User: Which sequence fits this backbone?
């Protein structure tokens, strides 16, 4: 049975403030939990309705009822398991290869999807401005479907980093150069902007190359692409020309 204190503690981890205080986060679903376990994320406690996860020590595994799992789950339809992991120390940021930088991305689903895209396209480093949604937000963790274990996510002062890097910096704009006719390098930083406002003026000042994904529709009335969709197109093009 899940105690009231456990429910209070796990529910509290839905909030960034509590995650920072306890240095822990929540993951739900067999795939996500197993991916994190395989990546050696430090497990605090596992709650499961099945006698599974045989590799997990019994002292850190609690078999609960489906009703109890609903009480601690943040999902509309609870999965069969929920785990609390310790937040790892931020890894060292190294400047090589292709790096994706996010300027104040606020939607958890967008961040989670972009992390999956980085994993798919072999982008090992994702840089986030301090205004970007927390990577350990439960909705972000869920949206990554385990890719959070394979992409190094760093939170930094993006303006300072962009202005001092030796790598070429590319930004996505409505009035940039057509990405399909641009010569793209194998190394560089790709900046993706906020869902509503795009790339901030402070960051824009240090961007050397402006790129755009052209519209092909006859009416040309679509204002913009979803940032995760745009990231997929941009990364696909960078990888295609580097083959």
Assistant:
């Amino acid at each position: 049975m899940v105690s009231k204190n456990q429910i209070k503690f796990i529910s509290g981890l839905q909030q960034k403030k509590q995650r920072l205080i306890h240095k822990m986060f929540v993951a739900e679903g067999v795939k996500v939990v197993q991916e994190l376990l395989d990546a050696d994320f430090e497990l605090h406690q596992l709650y499961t309705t099945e006698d599974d996860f045989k590799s997990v020590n019994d002292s850190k595994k609690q078999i609960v009822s489906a009703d109890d799992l609903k009480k601690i789950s943040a999902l509309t339809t609870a999965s069969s398991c929920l785990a609390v992991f310790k937040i790892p120390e931020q890894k060292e940021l190294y400047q090589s290869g292709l790096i994706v930088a996010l300027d104040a991305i606020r939607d958890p689903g967008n961040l989670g999807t972009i992390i999956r895209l980085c994993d798919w396209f072999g982008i090992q480093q994702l840089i986030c401005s301090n205004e970007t949604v927390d990577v350990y937000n439960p909705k972000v963790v869920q949206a990554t479907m385990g890719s959070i274990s394979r992409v190094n996510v760093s939170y930094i002062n993006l303006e300072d980093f962009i202005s001092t890097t030796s790598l070429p910096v590319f930004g996505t704009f409505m009035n940039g150069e057509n990405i399909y006719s641009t010569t793209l390098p194998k190394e560089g930083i790709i900046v993706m902007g906020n869902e509503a406002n795009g790339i901030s003026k402070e960051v824009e000042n240090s961007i050397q190359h402006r790129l755009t994904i052209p519209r092909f529709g006859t009416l040309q009335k679509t204002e913009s692409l979803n940032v995760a969709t745009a990231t997929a197109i941009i990364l696909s093009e960078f990888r295609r020309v580097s083959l």
Q: What stands out?
A: The first strand starts at residue 24 and ends at 28. The CA atoms of residues 37 and 123 lie 21 Å apart. The chain has a mean pLDDT of 93.
